[in-house]
Design brief:
88 residues; alpha/beta; 39% helix; 23% strand
Length: 88
């Protein structure tokens, strides 16, 4: 059977719990099925490690929204810490 797996990130190497779960699911399914993985790619220059089992991978370029980038910037975190300390 051919199976398309949609995932938000590339699960190799499996570092986080989510990546580990996806990795083992794909590994198990690949023993009896033809798999295709579609996932997002945040950094187009990033090189992906080779998959240790048969799997066709298609990555879709994705850029984080501007609001997300601003919320995770150092300026935003410093302002948040300052506001939080004034409340106490």
């Amino acid at each position: 059977m051919r199976i398309l797996v949609l995932n938000s990130e590339f699960p190799f190497p499996p570092v986080t719990g989510c990546e580990s779960r996806t990795f083992h699911l794909l590994k198990s399914l690949s023993e009896e099925h033809d798999l295709t993985l579609a996932c997002f790619r945040l950094d187009p220059s990033e090189t992906r490690p080779a998959c240790p089992f048969p799997l066709e991978v298609h990555s879709v370029p994705y850029e984080l929204p501007e609001l997300h980038k601003r919320m995770h910037s150092l300026e935003w975190e410093a302002a948040y810490r300052q506001l939080s300390s004034e409340d106490g």
